[in-house]
Amino acid sequence: MSYTIIGIFPNEKESRDVITKLEDAGLYDYSLANSEIEALENVETKDNRGFFDWLFDRNEIETDRYEYASINSNTITVYAETEDDANAAKTILDENGAIDVEEKTRDYLAGKYADKHHEYPISESKKARIIAKAKNDLYFTDERSAAYRPEKGMSDEMDSQGKKD
To answer: Which one, 68, 113, 122, 150, has least CB within 10 Å?
Structure first.
């Protein structure tokens, strides 16, 4: 299984220090972005709906939370193949200044989603977050919803030989 670990940092110096620590730990598959648009350029997705939209499987509130938290910040995204590497990356991000996303976005979300304020999902970790998602393909998010839902059946009739005329 593949994992994507994301942490948001308030300034470039902290994020550069974290990258040094990630490399010292042998974690070299990462990207550093100053904005959501730059992060999107480092991930191959099937559409251009946005990095956080892709990361959170189009969950409007989680996408909004992270887009807002990343304003004027640096986002570090680490890709890991094993759970141990994912946890090591998360620990490095958490211990070296990853912002508390829930705390930073609490008032913003309460104002924007007043009717859902107590319903929006709060991740297990308020700082760096591990998502079970491959770098180039979606496996699943916390809700484990399928990324691709094929259409049912065919749109055109076929003859008895299985060919369209």
So the answer is: 150
Distance between CA atoms of residues 21 and 87, nearest Å: 14
Buried b (16+ CB within 10 A) or exposed e, 56-94: bbebebbbbbbbebbeebbbbbbbbeeeebbebbbebbb
Whose CA is closest to 122, among 62, 71, 77? 62
Query: Which residues sit opposite 9 in a β-bridge?
Result: 74
Show the beta-strand stretches assigned E in the chain: 3-9, 30-33, 74-80, 129-131
Give the amino acid at 133. Answer: K
C-alpha R_g of the chain: 19
Contacts of 144 (CB under 8 A, 6+ apart): none
Other beta carbons less than 10 A from residue 105's beta carbon: 21
- pLDDT one digit per residue (tens) for the chain, 165 residues: 689 999 999 888 888 899 999 999 999 998 888 754 444 445 444 443 478 888 888 888 888 888 888 888 999 999 999 999 999 999 999 999 999 988 888 888 888 887 765 555 555 557 888 887 766 654 444 444 444 444 555 555 656 665 555
